[in-house]
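Quick question about two entries, pasted in order.
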Amino acid sequence: MTDEYFMQQALLEAQLAFEEEEIPIGAVVVMQNRIIARGHNMTERLNDPTAHAEMIALTSAFSKIGSKYLPDATLYVTVEPCLMCAGAVYWSKVSKIVWGAGDEKNGHQRLTQQRSPFHPKAEIITGVLQEECAALMKAFFKQRR
């Protein structure tokens, strides 16, 4: 399995969010080449500003494996995590974070500038299926204007 394959799975979650009129961001948590958790934005449905795709997927993964740490996991998310989600990823000790599109407005990099908010041992990969991830976001906001 490749990063592109798992990002495609995260994109399927983002599409679900799009169809539910949520900001279309999706995430999957992978361990040993298997998806153990999925999530997509649910902030509108749950009336909860913390119900981001990453938070939903991480919470599901913690529950699935019965641990608050995921040191052997990879998080795939269609858009760069915000600062809140970056903090959750840090505390979960995820070993690899992969995202598609950057987020200049709300992404963690805008606020943290030079210091990564992720665990120091975490591997970071960006730009996987960037065009597809960005296109879904653009379509969502174009539809709303």
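Here is the second entry:
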Amino acid sequence: MTYPTVRLKPKAEARAIRHGFPWVYADELVTDRRTKGLDAGALAVLEDGERRVLGLVTVNSNSRIVCRMIDRDPAAVIDEAWFATRLQRALALRETLFDAPYYRLVHAEADGLPGVVIDRFGDAAVIQPNAAWSETLIGPLSAALAKVTGVTTIIRNGMGRARALEGLPEELTVLQGAIDAPVPVPMNGAIYMADLLGGQKTGLFFDQRPNHAFAQRLAKGARVLDVFSHVGGFSLAALAGGAERALAVDSSAPALKLAQDGAVAMGAASRFATRQGDAFATLEALAAEGAQFDLVVCDPPAFAPSKQALEAGLRAYERVARLAAPLVAPGGYLGLCSCSHAADLAAFRGANVRGIGRAGRRAQLLHTGFAGPDHPLLPQLAESGYLKALFFRLD
């Protein structure tokens, strides 16, 4: 197959790409009329400034990430068989890690499918084609997914901020099969109800699985508060670990309904309660009520989704820590999480320590957690290591 050619500017650094960095930014590429004329998601051979071939890339001149490396072989044919090879490799890892088919199957660049996320829920899978090339090739991608995994229902979730950055419209479609109810997902002994059509992202956050498990170890006999709970991530895990009772707080009534349904499915409804409202206001209200918990976990959305939002995001994380710390009983535990890739571990930890200190509490840092192994990191791409979870013991 013959592909068009795109070229780095003479002063652009090609070494990083040769060593595995997967992106080319718009200011690094020669964007002449021919390059700008390529359709979003087109495939092209990337050359360095001296016309040496670097590999096959996808091109989208509408995006700040103008090229994404897709194959080191410049003659690669990106068809159903190519997708099947990548998916088989991803599946082999997940089947090694997990006994049941509930996991992130594809984690974008780290699994060789740039900008693509696939979460598996038993016989169903949700694809997030967050890059233009994957939208263009959704047909062979979904066909390979069905063939390799045997899933019978495939949903394309084209929603969210990442799509807008690629100039793609928001849309949600069922590509294969049908689904008419939330899917029960067993994880860490809990049962979560995942709404694959109406929930956040793909319906469930698999990335917190190891952090749920760590919190579960702290939860036996405990009073637990789960803030920004979504469908009950930490609270249902705590109940499965023997918590005395758990309260889930979220602004979304549908998410809390799914959490309640999960507690019912687990046989733990009598120990579970929900409270709908703004998280900051609810933390203040609970403090005014004199509430105390043995374990408090706060898992907010990304307060710092970009470098421009970093300063405000760190202030928000500090505020969460300051408001949550007074609710922790002496000797109890506080878990604080961030899914902001712009806030690195040191900055996030510093914000939390400041917040705990401003609340007048002294802390021991017990555990630092990250996303599970079904969310592998591409070492050359810091953005793929977005999730941080810190657990403190408070005096």
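Reply: The chain has a mean pLDDT of 96. The first strand starts at residue 5 and ends at 7. Hope that helps.
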